[in-house]
Amino acid sequence: MAYWVEPKPAFTALDYDVVELYAGRARITNIAQKVGYRAIAADKNYDDNPTQSALELNGNAGFTLAVMMILSGSPAGAISMLGIECSTFVSMSRGSTKRDELNPWGNVSAPSVAAANKATSRQEKQQPQLFLACAPGYPKPTQTLI
Length: 146
Description:
The protein is about 35% helix and about 10% strand. It is α/β, with parallel strands linked by helices.
């Protein structure tokens, strides 16, 4: 339902070939634009106040923004990239994250682990449904309630 919120951000007026979330330095977006694709990126660090940013994709406002960005994908087909904070998943950080094969959620009381878990679960649960809305042959969200 986020797509029908008014007023819409200006970026929703365009169709994108590449949507990069948790973009960091937006390298994928920059490369895509250089080769002619329409691309957009979002990361909380793009805001002057990252701790209170509307681009914090783990927050309600940021997640709504991410959904709107993905639904702005091209009707001919679009790809969405999520650069989740991977430092909590590598073996070198097991001492602080407490992640392992038997405890993949790790130390959920650690803020970085909790944020990475939330982002990962949102990606796994939401991306397939959102990609269907942007896949070739499917009507744009302004035409249907997918």
